[in-house]
Each structure stands twice: as structure tokens, then as C-alpha cells.
Amino acid sequence: MAIYSATVTSPVNIAVIKYWGKRNPSLILPTNSSLSVTLSQDHLSTRTTIACSADFESDRLWLNGVEEDISASKRLVNSIGTARALRASEEAKNPELAPLSQYKIHVCSENNFPTAAGLASSASGYAALVSALGQLFELPQSTAELSRVARVGSGSACRSMFGGFVAWRMGEKEDGEDSMAEQVAERAHWPDLQALILVVSDKKKAVSSTAGMQTTVETSALFAERVRSVVPARMQAMEKAIKERDFAEFAKITMQDSNQFHAVCLDTYPPIAYMNDTSHAVTRIIHAYNAVKGYTAAAYTFDAGPNAVIYAPKSEMRDLVQLFSYLFPRDEDVLPEVFYTNPFGLVGAEEVGQTVSDPAVRKLAETVGKFQAGAVRRLIHTEVGDGPRVLDQAESLLSQSGMPKRARQ
Ligand code: DP6
């Protein structure tokens, strides 16, 4: 049987100016613009293969080896439907094109990071879905235009359509035509910037972003001020800081915006608390670290959960990995196999959790004191990355007959 297929990988992004609030929940139109850094796909990415054929009987989806019901997700139905409509209009213009828009599809998607890490996978997931559909259907739309399709899957996904530093312009139009992502600077513009993700243990189940932000829009008085004046000014200042590679300014705005986002969550009624004691300790440690260094050396940011993402120049990473692995000992009993992978060769295995080389940082570590083992489960060290990548047939997750090559329970 004739099968058409495409395979891509897409990156995770972590916002430095947060998206929080929708003015139109069904089209996923935000109340404010936002800005993020795309992280390297070598460490965090979603791979997706989509195949279509006249012989497939229904649309099917496998996520990390488990079959899911596509029709149960309005967001999946919307983004696939939008891509099909774009293909259909090309087919209407050119009768020689195979009628792929009529065919059923098989979607197979896997993350290269553990789902248990609690890292947002919807952004990389929907960006991968839409990039693969764009590829499969040979859509002529630009990446910015396709980011609108990713947006209807999950708001933050539109920013994963580009590498480097990416703004999501909120737009003004009611139909959302001008609400899309735009690259502010390429990855190569600021290769010195790296990120260290602290995967923080948490027992409680977080309120989903989708539900949480809606309650914020409806109940928070602080939120109105954030949307009206704070974010527009920060977007400008952040773009300038990125263009000038001004880390001190980048870091200050990043930390302030994370803090305000969580303040707005607490101002939501009933309040939403995403950060836990470990998260708050990390903010204090970063401010103390900057004070010890005598300059702004690192910045934290937190999304809708307790994990910390630390942005810092490469030259700070050895000290930061040593500091955090000393303060947050690994729990030998519960631990995943890997605690820190040392992808850039900056920190020797014997240093992790043992040595803090810099005397001033060591003094800080001793003053703060070690936390309970396992409070941080994992350190993921990564850097700024590129946008979605198209892979060749050999990398497909689906076999010749369009079924998953690997299926898990
Ligand atoms: C805190 O994009 O997950 O990570 O549009 O409802 O799918 P939906 O929400 P989502 O929200 C992300 C919120 C955030 C901040 C950000 O990424 O900008």
C-alpha cells in the first residue's frame, strides 16, 4: 500500500516572560505577549512520525508507546483539522497532488526525557505534531504561519516552532491570525547561554496551566496590571537585553517575571501555589550566589510546577552544578539511574555532590547546609537550541505498514 510519512523532532522552550491568561480559550489567544528560550534537542525533545494512507481506517495516535484516543482531545482534533484544511486548499489549486487531506493518519510520538520529570511536554509535542504535518502535507506556509496551528494545540507550543530566542506576539485580531511566534534572535547569537534544570520532587498534583490561568483571568486583580503595563514594558526591555547579550538585565527581568507570575497565581482565588519549599530555597540560593559573586551570575525561572530552570553563562555552570549537587544530595534509593549527565564535560563525575571548588561558593554551600536527600531528583544541563528538525525515513517511529515499531505497555 502507498504510505506517505514524515518524521521530525521538536524542542522544549522555557519562557522568560510568561504566558498566563487567554482572551479566547478556544482559539488559544493570550492576554499578553511572551518570550522564551528554546532548549537543545540533544537533551530534551519530542520525536513524532506521522503517516497517512488511503488504506488507513481511522486516525490513530501512540504517545510514548501507548495508544490514545485522538478524538478525545479537542486540541488534537483542532490542530490536525487546521493542517488538513491547509492541505485541502493546496489540493484544490493543484489537481495533481495526491488527496492526502482525505486520508486517515497514524501519529506516533516519543519524548527523549522521562515524563516523570514533570517537564512540560505539550510545547514540544504540539510543535512536533504541526511540523510533521507541515512536512507530510508539503505545506507552503512559513514557520511563523504554522506556529498559529501549533498555538491551537497548546499556547506555548507556538514558541517551540523556532530555535533561539522566540517571542509570541499576542496579536489583536479576533480570529487570531496575528497571534503567532517570531524569532527574536538565533541560537548562534548567544551560544554562551546555558540552562540547568533542577527536577524537584513533589507529591501534590499541580493545577493544570489551562485551568489555572483561566481562574487567574477571572479572579486576580494583580493580573490586570500585569497585562496592562508590566508585560509590554518587559517585552521591550527583554528583547533589548537579548540583542545586546546583556546577561545582568536578562537575568533580572527573567527572575522578576517568574516571581510576578507566581504572585499572580497566589492572587488567584482560590490561590494556586506551584512553587514548593525546595523551589523557594533555590530562589534564595541564586540571590545569595549572585551576592557572593558580586555580579549577576545566574537567574531562576519556574513554570506551572516546582522545577527550577537556571539560566547562566557557560563559565558559571561548573560552580552551579557543584553547588546544587552538594546542597541537594541524590537519594540513592529512589533515584533514576542518572543524576547529572555532564553533557559538556565541565564537571567531573567525582565532583558531583562532593566538591565545591570555588572557596566563596564553598562557604555559601556550607552556610546554607545540605537539604534532605532526593529533594532534587535530577540535574539536566543543557543550552540554547535550534528549531524543529526533519529526520529521514530511517528515523521513523512507524513501520512500512504504518504501525509503531516499538510499543510499550
Ligand atoms: C507557565 O501552553 O501549557 O509554562 O495554552 O492552555 O496549553 P495552554 O497552556 P500552556 O501554558 C504554559 C504556561 C507557562 C508559561 C509559558 O510557557 O509561557
Automatic annotation (TrEMBL):
Enzyme class: lyase
Keyword annotations: Lyase
Keyword Lyase (UniProt): yes
Domain of life: Eukaryota
EC number annotated for this UniProt entry: 4.1.1.33
Entry annotated with the keyword Lyase: yes
Name of protein: Diphosphomevalonate decarboxylase
